[in-house]
Amino acid sequence: MSTSAKLPARRGLRPAHFVFLAWALLLAAMPFLADNYFVRLATFVAMYSALALSWNFIGGYTGYPSFATAAFVGLGSYTGAVLQNAGAPMVAAWVCATLFTGLVAALIGAAILRMKGHYFAVGSITLIEVLHQVASLWSSVTGGGEGLNVPILAGGPDFAGRVFLYAMLATLLLVWAVTLWVDRSKLGFGLRCISQNEDAADMVGIQVNRYKTVAFTLSALFCGTVGAIYASWVSYISPSDAFSVLLTLKVPAMAMLGGLGTVYGPIVGAAAFVLMEETIWAHFLDYNQAILGVVIVLLILFLPGGFLKIDYRRLWRRPPPARPAAPAASALSAAVTGEKAEKGEKADKAAAAPLATFAREGRS
């Protein structure tokens, strides 16, 4: 087992924690600093950061290429919407959607996590299509292809914008706290071991199936929360929107942009992704998705470890000037080089002598 999977030391608050909390406070203050566009943008940043951190449990720490994000976001969306339409309070519907999504993920994970590599990736994508078909065909509950309306929050658009921003921020802070615990716990150590060598982790006594199921369930749990909040935010969901394959590709890309298996990599990647997406959309409306895809692929190719794996101090540090060789040292080096060349030439002649003798005897 590689030493890189060692259990992190328990430390207090690091500077990165203060930077993150200051950034979260800035997002929380956005309704008082800017207009509704920036409030909406801050809500998306918090939402995608929570999703990327959630995916990081199974994709980053465990190393399993899960593409089931949209499946659990959609499941949480429909569960919360159905409960709200049945008369449940909004927050209670969010909590129930979270728990139900986690329960479904735990049951599915016990079976699907027996697959590895490409088989697991294909199996996780299949979940999206299965739930998409269920939502499309079960029209008496989900509204079928026409979608499902969700009760609009009273109080006006400004009040609703603040409520959903703070709901997404609260979810992000909760996922962040759980990530900090996992990163420093025995669970995080076990997940790193599984990521490096699953068979070796099993041989040293790590309960591989249990650890993978916990990571998969944690990942799905918070996706369900985000999905339920999102359904209340937009007040309408449909199968094509709730179970979007594009979403399930975006989230892993965000985590890879920032750095897999880290606490802050997915957050940095999500923020960078949203800002790039908004910038490209504003300048290249017709080709924004294609251009964004090319940019993301290039960044992942040339920054395989993500933004947080770059040694910025080394990048900006100037290399020391080369010292000129001293004349005496140069003369000594030339003399030694000439002596070695002369000895090498004599050795080559000595080695070639038997071959020349053999050739002369052959002609005679």
Automatic annotation (TrEMBL):
Question: Region (Disordered) spans which residues?
Answer: 337-364
GO cellular component terms given for this protein = plasma membrane
Which locations, inside or outside the cell, does it occupy?
A: Cell membrane
Sequence ranges of Low complexity compositional bias: 350-364
Q: How does it sit in the membrane?
A: Multi-pass membrane protein
Molecular-function GO term, any one: branched-chain amino acid transmembrane transporter activity
- The biased composition feature labelled Basic and acidic residues covers 339-349
Q: Mind telling me which residue stretches traverse the membrane in this protein? A: 12-31, 67-86, 92-113, 159-182, 213-233, 253-275, 287-308
UniProt KW keywords: Cell membrane, Membrane, Transmembrane, Transmembrane helix
Specify where it is mainly localized. membrane
Alphabetized Pfam families for the sequence: BPD_transp_2 (PF02653)
Q: What is this protein called?
A: Amino acid/amide ABC transporter membrane protein 2 (HAAT family)
Please name the source species. Azoarcus indigens
Q: What is the lineage of its organism?
A: Bacteria, Pseudomonadati, Pseudomonadota, Betaproteobacteria, Rhodocyclales
